[in-house]
């Protein structure tokens, strides 16, 4: 059955791979994009998730064009890496505002329709560093750890309405975000990953699609690592 899916930040990287995975399975897929060109293959709605009005407008357009969102993948995220003593209030709050508060905004809005339908699937994209910590990423790691408590609270609040909320925690994935690292940093990271390589965005997308599938109907409040073994035990 074709469902109405929304992927935030679906114009590139992991989000685009997730959007493609749902579309390949026959779902109707909308993506939000903030800058650059919209991807042609999906319903693309311009939306900055730090702006409540843009989030509302995006949902209205998606609801009109493909129906209420039945599957939400909150993927949009940013990093602004800096060691703690050099990290400004703005570095900290802007990352929290996008990754955590922005996710709150899109999830809250999606839940309206899901509660009415008495079903829904929500998947949040966190990160292995939310649980492991990462020097130079206190803001990013805090935001990604916050998503776990947020997801588990929603799983408890909305479970009785047949709405699941799960987290995927990727390790290092080959996208623009990690291409910004130096070659030296990339090599050091790969050295710590038991599988000895970066993930392809599609390898994250397949877990997201599973969590939104009928096969995962009894999974909620889970944190699924897709990290090549990097975070084992966390
Ligand atoms: P990219 O930097 O390649 O893409 C980030 C996406 O988020 C873009 O679509 C971007 O839109 C969007 N975005 C950023 N800020 C906003 C905003 N305020 N409003 C709306 N959209 C926004 O990142 P990845 O694909 O690598 O990452 C996707 C998610 O996966 C992120 O949440 C990231 O933290 C997480 N992740 C990534 C890992 C990695 O190794 N790459 C590892 C673990 C987690 P635009 O194109 O307009 O900038």
TrEMBL record:
Enzyme class: oxidoreductase
Catalytic activity: a (3R)-hydroxyacyl-[ACP] + NADP(+) = a 3-oxoacyl-[ACP] + NADPH + H(+)
Annotated ranges, domain Ketoreductase: 3-176
UniProt pathway: Lipid metabolism; fatty acid biosynthesis
Subunit and interaction comment: Homotetramer.
Family designation: Belongs to the short-chain dehydrogenases/reductases (SDR) family.
Protein name: 3-oxoacyl-[acyl-carrier-protein] reductase
The species this protein was found in: Streptomyces glaucosporus
Lineage of source species: Bacteria, Bacillati, Actinomycetota, Actinomycetes, Kitasatosporales
């Amino acid at each position: 059955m074709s469902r109405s899916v929304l992927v935030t930040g679906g114009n590139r990287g992991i989000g685009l791979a997730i959007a493609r995975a749902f579309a390949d399975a026959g779902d109707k897929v909308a993506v939000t994009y903030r800058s650059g060109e919209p991807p042609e293959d999906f319903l693309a709605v311009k939306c900055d998730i730090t702006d409540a009005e843009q989030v509302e407008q995006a949902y209205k357009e998606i609801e009109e064009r493909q129906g209420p969102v039945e599957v939400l993948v909150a993927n949009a995220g940013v990093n602004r890496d800096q060691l703690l003593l050099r990290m400004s209030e703005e570095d900290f709050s802007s990352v929290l505002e996008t990754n955590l508060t922005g996710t709150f905004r899109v999830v809250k809005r999606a839940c309206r329709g899901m509660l009415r339908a008495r079903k829904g699937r929500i998947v949040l994209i966190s990160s292995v560093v939310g649980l492991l910590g990462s020097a130079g990423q206190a803001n990013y790691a805090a935001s990604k750890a916050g998503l776990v408590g947020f997801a588990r609270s929603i799983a408890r609040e909305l479970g009785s309405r047949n709405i699941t909320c799960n987290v995927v925690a990727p390790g290092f994935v080959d996208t623009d975000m990690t291409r910004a690292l130096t070659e030296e940093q990339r090599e050091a990271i790969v050295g710590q990953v038991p599988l000895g390589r970066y993930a392809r965005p599609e390898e994250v997308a397949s877990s997201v699609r599973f969590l939104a599938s009928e096969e995962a109907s009894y999974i909620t409040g889970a944190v699924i690592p897709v990290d090549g073994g990097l975070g084992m035990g966390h």
